[in-house]
Each structure stands twice: as C-alpha cells, then as structure tokens.
Design brief:
- One of its GO terms (molecular function) is metal ion transmembrane transporter activity.
- It is a multi-pass membrane protein.
- Its main location: membrane.
- Pfam families: CorA.
- It is a single chain.
- It is built from four helices and four strands, in the order E-E-E-E-H-H-H-H.
- By secondary structure, the protein is α+β, with helices and mostly antiparallel strands.
- The protein has two domains: 158 residues; 48 residues.
- Helix 3 packs antiparallel against helix 4.
- The longest helix has 64 residues.
- It is rod-shaped, with a radius of gyration of 35 Å.
Length: 230
C-alpha cells in the first residue's frame, strides 16, 4: 500500500512529512517538516495555520461521513421493530459494508498520523490536541457503525432462518398427519377378498370415522407439542 492510499507520518533521510488523505474531496495533502519549518507538497513554504486549516477541513469531512453512515443505519435499524422491509438493506448490504470498512480504515490512519505528528512536532502539539481527540472519537464511531451493520445483517439472517425452520416444521407436521391416513386408505383400497369390515353394512362409515378420530388425535397432539415448544 503506497502513501497515496493512506494517511500517515513518514520519515525520510532529510526530512519528515505527513500525508493526509481526504474523504469528500479529490485532493490529498502532504506537508514536509524540515529545519523547524513546514513546506507544502510543491516545495513552497507553508505554515502552522495552513496545516491546521487542512486538518480541520479533513476532520469536518470525516464528521459529515460518520453522520451520513449513522443516519443510514438508524433507518435500517427500524427492522428490529418490524417497521421496515429488509429487502432493500439486503440489496445494499455488501456495498454499504464495503464503504464503511473502507472509511474505517481511512479514519484510523488519519488518527494515527495526527497522533504521531503531535508527538513528533512539539510546536504543533497544543494546536493538534483537540483534532487528535476528535479523530479518535470519529474512529470509534466508525468501528461502531461497522459493528452495527453486521448486527443488522445477523438479525435479518436470524429472521430468515426462523421462517425456514417454521416452514419445515409445518411440512413435517402435515406429513406426520397424513401418513397414517394414507396408510389406511391404501390398506382398505386393496382389491383382495376377506378384507376387514368387508361384510359390515356401515364399514365405510366406521373407517371414515376412525380416520377422522385419528386425524383429530394427531392434530391435537401436535398442537399441544407446538405450544410447549413455544
């Protein structure tokens, strides 16, 4: 990973420099520290005011991005209360997770770059104090957002698994209910002599009543077991 990909504080043979990667704008910033002076990336002499202005600008961009991600997640968290369809979240989950993880990596390196710069440059220590603290807060917020999106996805998967298990349970009950009835129907449907109840005038009614009684008994049993399971 090159310095253009991440923020960081770097050491060269003749100088030290900090590279700051932004979020909202396309421009990134490089400040060179040499002979107790600060130079811009083009070699022109800069100053502490310009450096702090850039740090403030990038911090503001990161703060806005955190607020954007938090608002999106708050909207999706209505799924917990059953007030929102989760199909939209499932479609955007992979992209949103990638964005949050990428931003989490970016804010973490930004925080580390400021923290090292604060330790290495005593003349900037006081001015960077609040920004280092805020960058740490934003870093923790990004970690929380990454955990929140995983929690939402896990909750949705749990709901889907519960629905699948419920459907399988219902199919199992139906199979168990109709299996004895299918056996009775098949048994009395055999074209053989000497069949049980063959000589009874009300044989069909007896068999039908027996099947209904068996069906009611099994249905009641499974209903009772289902209640105990809940």
């Amino acid at each position: 990973m090159s310095e253009r990909d991440i923020s960081g504080y770097f050491y060269d043979e003749e100088c030290e420099y900090v590279y700051l990667v932004t979020d909202g704008s396309e421009q990134n910033y490089k400040f060179i520290f040499k002979d107790d002076k600060i130079y811009a990336q083009d070699g022109s002499q800069s100053g502490a005011e310009e450096f702090i202005r850039v740090v403030k600008k990038i911090t503001s961009e990161f703060r806005a991005k955190i607020a954007e991600h938090s608002a999106q997640l708050e909207s999706y968290e209505k799924i917990y209360a059953g007030k929102r369809d989760f199909t939209k979240f499932i479609k955007k989950h992979a992209i949103l997770k990638y964005e949050i993880r990428k931003f989490q990596n970016k804010i973490s390196h930004f925080y580390e770059a400021l923290a090292i710069c604060q330790n290495e440059r005593p003349e900037l220590k006081k001015q960077l104090k609040n920004y280092v603290y805020e960058a740490g807060v934003l870093k923790n917020a990004a970690c929380e957002n990454a955990a929140r999106i995983d929690d939402i996805y896990a909750h949705i998967q749990s709901l889907k698994n519960d629905k699948i298990n419920r459907n399988i349970y219902i199919l199992t009950l139906l199979s168990a209910l109709f299996l004895p009835l299918n056996f009775i129907t098949g048994f009395f449907g055999m074209n053989t002599n000497g069949m049980f109840l063959n000589g009874f005038q009300n044989g069909t009614a007896i068999v039908a009543g027996s099947m209904l009684a068996l069906f009611a008994t099994l249905a009641g049993l499974f209903y009772f077991l289902g209640k105990r399971r809940e």
